[in-house]
Amino acid sequence: MYWFSSLLPSLLLPNTLSIPTPDTQIIAPRVFIVNFFASEARAWHNLPQFDILAQNISIPGLSPLFPHIHCAHDGLICQAITGQGEINAASTISALVTSPRFDLRSTYFLLAGIAGVNPKLATVGSVTFARFAVQPGLQHEIDAREKPANFPSGYFGFGTTVPGQYPVWIDGTEVFEVNDALRHVAADLARSATLQDTQECKDLRATYAPAPIYAAGAAPPSIVLCDTLTSDTFWSGVLLAEAFENTTRVLTSRKASACSTQQEDNAVLGALLRGALANLVDFSRIIVMRSGSDFDRQPLGGSAADTLFAPMVAHDVSILNLRNAGLEVAKGIMAGWSATFERGIEPTNYIGDILGSLGGKPDFVPA
Length: 367
Ligand SMILES: *[C@@H]1O[C@H](CO)[C@@H](O)[C@H](O)[C@H]1NC(C)=O
Ligand SMILES: *[C@@H]1O[C@H](CO)[C@@H](O)[C@H](O)[C@H]1NC(C)=O
Fold this sequence. Notes:
Helices cover 27% and strands 17% of the residues. By secondary structure, it is an alpha/beta fold. The chain has one domain: Nucleoside phosphorylase domain (Rossmann fold, 3-Layer(aba) Sandwich). The strands form two sheets. Strands 1, 2, 3, 4, 5, 6, 7, 10, 11, 12, 13, 14 and 15 form a 13-stranded mixed beta sheet that branches. A hairpin with a 5-residue loop joins strand 3 and strand 4. It is globular. The chain binds 2-acetamido-2-deoxy-beta-D-glucopyranose (2 copies). One 2-acetamido-2-deoxy-beta-D-glucopyranose binds next to helix 6. The site of one 2-acetamido-2-deoxy-beta-D-glucopyranose (NAG) has 8 residues, from helix 6.
């Protein structure tokens, strides 16, 4: 049906494609699940609701480890697996966005990955929905053993001379803000998922209970509205965590809460933003979902290394809860398509990047 939509611009409908065949038909998904590695992706395979392995589509520019986009028979739900890290994520999503095989202008992108979580705000097994994605990797670093004695950490903004200052050089991917109204709709849908838990997760959480500041980390898993940090480096420990909380405060005028830590979201959002600038995707249709597989810092009295080296006991539960929550979001978008989602959910907040590229003025940039 979407094939002969009158809205398709001629550039997407070259003459050679005017008679659709299975290999050349343009696919217009309603939901695009974006996973980052194999275990996150497998959780969406062999489900009773849809067979997302019904079509394996090869397009130029995908990861050699994950060379196909997967789609259900009807093409209404698809899955990309980018590979871990910012380069993989940006490259795969750029390839997808510019592929003539897909019409993504009405597609909802559901970023679905696991993450480290800040025990001040969330816990392992929880599923979080972000409004802001912040990239603390874009800054200077002096090793803590060589930093000036008055610096609280070795990290400080590009072009500045002391931690806590707004960066002088801006590259454009430092902060993205997505549709907050859609985020609330997605989180409400996700709340009908049953979140799983295990004794090992409960035992891990209990180690955070003695510190009142980590009450969220000690509480049972839930759906949480809180923001995300992207960094290729899988760091651990309270000092780096607090340094990047500070980076987040500086970059967003204290609007974002540094809650989950992962390796791809700003990269995906950067590629989608460029797609939106070319009218290939709708930036108001992005959901940034992350579940907690581990803590980003040690409990009171613990060590950063022990926390990082410990077995990731919440891995399986975080994958399952991510899938179960994401499935409710996907089902909700499908079921409410003609009533609500086809038209879209109007953002009431600023959406876009730190540069204001899509129009409007970023509400998180200091005056
Ligand atoms: C698609 O690839 C998966 C493996 O990634 C395989 O299990 C599935 O059968 C393939 N589907 C088709 C239709 O070939
Ligand atoms: C974070 O910022 C606060 C307030 O400016 C400061 O007191 C603290 O030392 C900083 N911590 C780190 C680790 O940068």
